[in-house]
Amino acid sequence: MTIEQKHHQFQQYLSRKDSKRYLPAFWEHGPFPENLNKKLNLLDPKKQILLSSGVPNKELFSIKNISVNHTLDLGHENVGIPGDHVLTNTFHIGDESFSKHMSTKDKDYNSNVPIESVFEYADQTYGLSSTIELFNKLVTKFNYFREDILDNNQRKINYETIITSGTSASCFYLTQMLLDENKTILIEEFTYPVIIANVNMTDGHYAPFNLNMHATEENGQNPIDVEYLNTLLSNWDSFYPNKPYPTCLYTIPVQNPTGLVQSSEHRQEVYDICKKFNVLIIEDDPYGNILLTDEVNKVKDNEDKSPYNAFVNQKNDYLKKLESAASYLSIDTEGIVLRCESVSKVFAPGLRVGVIIANKFFIDRLKNIIECTTREISGPSMTMFNECCYGMDVLLKRQLQVDNIDRLDGWIQWLMNLSHRYKLRQDILLSSLYNTKAYKDKKLFECIEPKFGMFLCIKLNLETLKPQVLESSLSMQKCMQYMDYKLLEHNLSAIVGTKLSIDLDHSYKKSGFIRVTVAQATGKEQLQLAAHELGKAIEEFFDEYLTPSQEYEVLL
Amino acid sequence: MTIEQKHHQFQQYLSRKDSKRYLPAFWEHGPFPENLNKKLNLLDPKKQILLSSGVPNKELFSIKNISVNHTLDLGHENVGIPGDHVLTNTFHIGDESFSKHMSTKDKDYNSNVPIESVFEYADQTYGLSSTIELFNKLVTKFNYFREDILDNNQRKINYETIITSGTSASCFYLTQMLLDENKTILIEEFTYPVIIANVNMTDGHYAPFNLNMHATEENGQNPIDVEYLNTLLSNWDSFYPNKPYPTCLYTIPVQNPTGLVQSSEHRQEVYDICKKFNVLIIEDDPYGNILLTDEVNKVKDNEDKSPYNAFVNQKNDYLKKLESAASYLSIDTEGIVLRCESVSKVFAPGLRVGVIIANKFFIDRLKNIIECTTREISGPSMTMFNECCYGMDVLLKRQLQVDNIDRLDGWIQWLMNLSHRYKLRQDILLSSLYNTKAYKDKKLFECIEPKFGMFLCIKLNLETLKPQVLESSLSMQKCMQYMDYKLLEHNLSAIVGTKLSIDLDHSYKKSGFIRVTVAQATGKEQLQLAAHELGKAIEEFFDEYLTPSQEYEVLL
């Protein structure tokens, strides 16, 4: 199929409103007759005098330069306590002569970024070219398209990257593009509920697809219930006689809230079904680079290696592990995958920088939506991310005491360090949880041990110990509300499963879990305390709920 | 009328979709029974362990601190050349111990802003509390509500402020809130066309209202043709039988593109009509603080005054002048004004920080839209703006060599300096334009001399010299396309009036102008060159167009 045919085929996925989103290009000139065109081509574009748009000249900006101190070093064994000697790098954005605090020897890394490129309107409403370029380099670095396979290398040229102000904005744009009253999106039965608000705004429909909560790395089962998905799409009208046939599917492959991870093989199974039924896949993956295994960061057989060789070993290990749960893009022969990423979980949520990677047809439509809606993204945010990312290389070279490394290896080291910290946090919480009376003696819960990400799912053993709450959606909702009361009573803020279901009538039997994250806790001591209190809250819940000692009436 | 009655009445202005925008508050807890509530109130909220949301702990951020050098000093007479001794202030965000370049004596102003408040999720999706607080202080400082009048002081408490990622985003949210297929918005016949894209997305309708292009400061005429507006709203069905009756009006009071300014009296006239016909007013005012008069910055009778007293004099002058063209909020007895501001033109567009001030009913609905769509705004952008704004006070104190000034006087000095620069730029362009042969000898054009803002409107004398182009919308479009060809041939990028009209059939007779801005030019020399080339381009246009010497065929 030619690109044109393909694009014609993609047209059917668009919201009927898409063609109404149109910004008259008042800033454009032309069309030009031939003889004028020739003349204009002879002019020096650098000498053009710009009287057209209200872009303040750089002399009119108060901020003359910005210096940023950042690190690659996240400390080592003691969660929450940074190492004694934190190696930092300083970079400077803007005119050096305005920085009083700088001498030549201080200059670690000069970004060469003029201040106006941060504070003027960006060169594009969908992100600074420099930031897009950086993400394209990372796509190559992480080998999203498996360029080692010839076909995929060819395929890559049909994709494009745009920057957004985070995945919330991305999901908003995507649902605006793809949904209307005649379209349905499939969503994992438990999810991050903002997507529902996005869908409702479009008048579109949604329906859940099932998770397999028993999938583990050991048993190798797919965390997506692919059998259900296949049956659902084969017999749509019998499941949902009043909803239009689905045109897209939304998945968080390192699942929020359950922490279940789709391996590359699992994604292939889901992809094959979507391909068969002409369903687009929105892959929302903010956690994919946080790898929770011990092996990568352990020095194995590395004693006789140089720091540089040890790093290369670790890097190869890390990249190989990521490849075992590779993006849907890596298998997207049909151009039906739209991938969302974010720097929120791997750099800083306050920056508001996210990314969409998809085929050019959809990216063009997204650019148009951005033009017509929110337009630009923060210049300081984008530039700080760029410069930090490149600055990580300076830090890594210093750390490894070498002059040359592969470009952006510093970013990989950062991600490995970050993964290590999350793994440490996870280990502390898990081992403390497994030490509680509630677990050890009473078997009141079990945990889904995630291999990626920052969430942990504590499944209550309701089937055996409180089977009556499984009778209806309402009884489950009440039960988990009581669980939440007990958590709050122990001064714990967590989220119970019933609040993360998109259709409780569909999913209530599986909703007996608590989602916790290790990201926010202050350190080791607090994580241990959290586990202890979680254990007690769960014990009290089982002791009290629906017994004479139930302390509180449940309000919904 | 009580607030409740008022809110009930406001309900009618909302888009029918507004109630569909709803985010399930999965992060909230409760409702609680009484006995639990009592218990929870006894707990220490600071000791609550947060396991609920994926907010990375501050130890997981790479950036440890940010130092910013900024100035209040924009140089004096030579546009484009900063003064020799630019006074700068440095502030630091985050942990000082990570900044290698700092010694105690370097510390001009310590922001006391911890790094996590920049890089974590913000405390609200509609802006950091600290930034909202700052804008509220500015509202008081600039006396938007004319608090000197008792009633208005009372009125103020019904209003609220939210932060957005700029006025483009604000206008997108506002149109989403207010428009659907059953609603019409009135828009100035010439405007910044992004609003049209916003409106189209909602299925809403729009219609132009007329500008009075002959209004000047001297003749005191209202730049809004209030007679037309009144007639239009009194006889809507005869003007637009197929469009719903208007529910809101969009105005740029320091008009883009014409540069026409609505004084306080003019706004009262427009307000009275809108009030009478139950029409909301969206006031989009990014230029209102850029005051283009000589007087403020001139030292008059100040020779014998201290620098501090001279500043106070200038400040009072400046504020008085602003009051002569005060916000619609100052007269908004009905709560029907929604005001948009932006820091783009007075600080830096790349920051992406804008503001909406409106009554609480509408602000609540806007907060909900933000929750359901784009969510948060850049932390570094908001914090840098806050700290620069407060840092201006440090600079001003140093400049005036006093220990105390009124808080945020520094920001006023900044705005006065900026106004002065724009005025200088404007003067250079205008005096050079008035010196061209095209103006002096041939009277080919006249200029609207703006008293605020950054735009300048060059009206071509088509009525006398090319009356045939006034015959139809098409002939005007072709004529101005030829004008654009001539501008481009002279390596000038400007925007011709026909491209800024929202309904050319309605406005073609007034479209014979060129919008230029002085913001973007590099300096004095370039502005003089621009005027020279503008003059030549206009001469050639009149010499050639529709004569045998016409060089190019016109393509549309």
UniProtKB/TrEMBL annotation, chains A, B:
Keyword Zinc-finger: no
Aminotransferase class I/classII large domain span: 135-526
Alphabetical list of CDD domains matching this protein: AAT_like (cd00609)
Cofactor: pyridoxal 5'-phosphate
Example GO biological process: aromatic amino acid family catabolic process
Transmembrane segments: none
Gene Ontology molecular function terms on file: 2-aminoadipate transaminase activity; aromatic-amino-acid transaminase activity; pyridoxal phosphate binding
InterPro entries reported in the protein's UniProt record: Aminotransferase_I/II_large (IPR004839), Class-I_PLP-dep_aminotransf (IPR050859), PyrdxlP-dep_Trfase (IPR015424), PyrdxlP-dep_Trfase_major (IPR015421)
Alphabetized UniProt keyword annotations: Aminotransferase, Pyridoxal phosphate, Transferase
Record family assignment: Belongs to the class-I pyridoxal-phosphate-dependent aminotransferase family.
Name of protein: Aminotransferase class I/classII large domain-containing protein
Species this protein is from: Hanseniaspora guilliermondii
